[in-house]
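[recover] target loaded
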């Protein structure tokens, strides 16, 4: 009877799949989804006694800052199993990717309903805040990226 209960508990733990979204910050602009998959793949597969993971989805986002007129590129990767995603973060954070240092961390989806800055009570007027200016950049806009292949219908010649 104990053996049957252990099998049921073990099978229930296999059914539960946890996913984590990681973000690759400051990636080069010529990065493709296949480059990110190829870069992360050795750590996701793991070693002999490590849990292997699966890359569910890869997105490349470009954000334009209208104040500085710069474009920043980010990669969002959904990975099955939190342990594998933590292993990826530890392995690739502050490493070189395609000749550029990148930062890798967990991506948190935020909304006004779960923002702890809004949920807190207003600070005491006598309390002096250490941070003078809010660091959030509200003016960032997502830019459409044209990552793809060319077809024969498109012209590669300059028009005079």
């Amino acid at each position: 009877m104990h053996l049957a209960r252990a099998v049921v508990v073990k099978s229930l733990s296999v059914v539960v799949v946890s996913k984590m979204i990681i973000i690759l910050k400051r990636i080069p602009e010529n990065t493709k989804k296949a480059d990110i998959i190829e870069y992360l793949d050795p750590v996701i597969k793991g070693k002999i006694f490590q849990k292997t993971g699966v890359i569910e989805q890869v997105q490349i986002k470009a954000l334009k800052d209208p104040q500085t007129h710069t474009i920043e590129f980010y990669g969002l990767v959904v990975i099955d199993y939190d342990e594998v995603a933590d292993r990826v973060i530890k392995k690739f954070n502050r490493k070189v990717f395609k000749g550029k240092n990148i930062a890798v961390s967990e991506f948190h989806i935020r909304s006004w309903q779960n923002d702890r800055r809004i949920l807190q009570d207003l600070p005491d007027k006598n309390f002096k805040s250490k941070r003078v200016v809010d660091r959030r950049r509200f003016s960032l806009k997502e830019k459409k990226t044209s990552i793809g292949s060319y077809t024969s219908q498109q012209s590669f010649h300059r028009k005079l």
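[recover] notes: The first helix runs from residue 2 to 15.
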